[in-house]
Amino acid sequence: MFKLFETLDRKAFTKATIALLLTILLVFIGSRNLQNFDAALIAYLVGTLFAVFGITYRYSVWLQRPPTKMYWRRSWQFLFSRNFIPYIGRSLNLFVRNILFQRFIYPRGRSRWIGHFLLATGCMIAFLVTIPLTLGWIHFTFEPGSTVTYEAHAFGYSVAKFQLNSFLAFNIFHVLPWCSVLVVIGAVMMMRRRLTNGGLIATQSFEGDWLPLVLLIAISVTGLGITYDYTFLEGKTNQFMSVTHAITVILFLVWIPFGKFFHIFQRPAQLGANIYRTEGKKRGMAVCPHTKKEYASKMHVNDLKTITEDLGFDFNLEDGRNHLDFSPEGKRSVLAKAHYKARKESGKFFG
Ligand code: HEM
Question: Is there a contact between 229 and 243 (Cβ–Cβ < 8 Å)?
Fold first, then answer.
C-alpha cells in the first residue's frame, strides 16, 4: 500500500483528478442537473469515470518521458507558428488518412487493414454514441404533443427531429447493432491472422493480442443480445442481456488505461511527429561525418543531444564532436573499424 504512494506520480494524479472532476461537472451540465441522466446507466458511468482518470494519469506519465515531452512541446510550437495553415491542413489530412482510415496499416497487408478498419470504425462510432448517452449528454423524447415524431437532445437542446418507423429512425436506433457487426467481422479477421501467421503464433501473448479481440467480440455479441431480446423475445431476457453487456463494457473501460487499448489515445500524437519531421527537413538535414549522407534533421540531432544530456549520458568525443552526430550506419562502421584497428595492433585477429 505504501509502495503505491511512493510510486504515485503527483503531477499525473493531479491532472487525472482534474479530468475526473471536469467530467463529473460536464455530466451535471450536459444532463441539466441529472434531469436527463439515465440512472440505469450508473455502472457504465462509474466505468467511464474510471477510464477517464486512468487514461489521463497514464497519458500524463507518458508525456513526462523526456523524448515524448520534447516531441509534444515542439509539435504544438510548430503547429501554432506562422505555418499554422499548412500544418493544420496537413494534420487534418493525416487525421483522416491515418486515424480515421488507418491507412498506414495498408502497406502491411490488405486484409490486415480491412480487419483493423472494420474493428476500429465499429468501436469509434459505438463510443461516439454510447459515451454521450452514458454521461447524459444526449437523450431522446417524443416531440411535445406528438406520438410519431421523435426529438434528439444534446446538452438539453433539441438538435434533430425524425419520424418514428422511418428508415432514418430505424438506423438511428440500430446504429449499435451495425457497429457490433463491423467489430465482430473485424475481430474475426484479426483472429484468423493470429491463427495462421507463423510469426504471430510464435510471438503473440494472450493478454496483449487475444484478450482485446475476445473482449471486443464479447461486448458486441452481448450488445446484439440486447437487440435480439427486444426484437424477438419481447424483452423476456432483458435483464440477463443488459447485465452481461454491462459487465463486458465495464471490464473493457477499466482495462483501457492498462492494456493494448491505450494505443487508441496515443496514436493521434503521431500527427505531431509528422509536423516535427516536416519542420526538421525545412530547417536542414544533418550529414553523417563518416558516411557523408543525410540521415536525420539537424533539429532532431540537437534535440537528441539535449535529451541524452538531461538523462545523464555524455556522448561527447575528445575531438569536440559527439557520437550523436554519426548516423546509425556511420556509428556501426566507425565501431567496426575501431575493432579492426585494435585487433591489428594487438597482432591477433581471433581469440
Ligand atoms: C465496441 C463497442 C460497443 C459495441 C459494438 C456495443 C454494442 C451495443 C449494442 C448492439 C447494444 C444494443 C443496442 C440496441 O439494440 O438497443 C448496446 C447497448 C448498450 N451499450 Fe454498448 N456497445 C459498445 C460499447 C459500449 C460502451 C463503451 C458503452 C458505455 C460506456 C456502452 C453502453 C451501452 C448501453 C448503456 C446500452 C444499452 C443497455 C441496455 O439497454 O441495457 N456500450 N451496445
Answer: no
Q: How crowded is residue 200: how many other Cβ atoms within 10 Å of its Cβ?
A: 13
Pocket lining for ligand 1, CB < 6 angstroms:
41, 44, 48, 122-123, 126-127, 130-131, 134, 176-177, 179-180, 183, 216, 219-220, 223-224, 226-227, 242, 245, 249
* The pLDDT of residue 2: 67
Residue with more model confidence, 1 or 39: 39
Checking if the pLDDT of 70 tops 70, the result is yes
210 contacts: CB under 8 Å, gap ≥ 6: 191, 194, 204
- Residue with the nearest Cα to atom 16 of ligand 1? 227
Position 319 pLDDT exceeds 90: no
User: Which set of grid coordinates corresponds to residue 160?
Assistant: 434533430
Give the pLDDT score at 136. Answer: 96
C-alpha 31/C-alpha 150 separation (Å) is: 18
pTM, entire model: 0.89
The reported pLDDT for the residue numbered 199 is: 93
Task: Please report the DSSP string for 199-224 in residue order.
Answer: HHHHH--IIIIIHHHHHHHHHHHHHH
Residue 276 to residue 283: CA distance in whole angstroms: 11
C-beta of residue 246 within 8 angstroms of C-beta of residue 43: yes
101-138: pLDDT as tens digits: 999 999 999 999 999 999 999 999 999 999 999 999 99
- All three cell numbers of 218: 464479447
Pocket perturbation via mutation, ligand 1, pick of 48, 123, 170, 176 by most ligand atoms within 8 A of CB: 176
Residue-wise pLDDT tens digits, 157-176:
999 999 988 999 999 999 99
Which cell is 115 given? 480487419
Q: What is the DSSP string of 142-191?
A: EPTT-SSEEEEEETTEEEEEEETTSHHHHHHHTHHHHHHHHHHHHHHHHH
For residue 244, report the distance from its CA to the centre of ligand 1, in Å: 11
Ligand 1 centroid, distance to 226 Cα (angstroms) = 9
pLDDT of residue 320: 84
Query: Distance between CA 17 and CA 345 in Å, rounded?
Result: 63
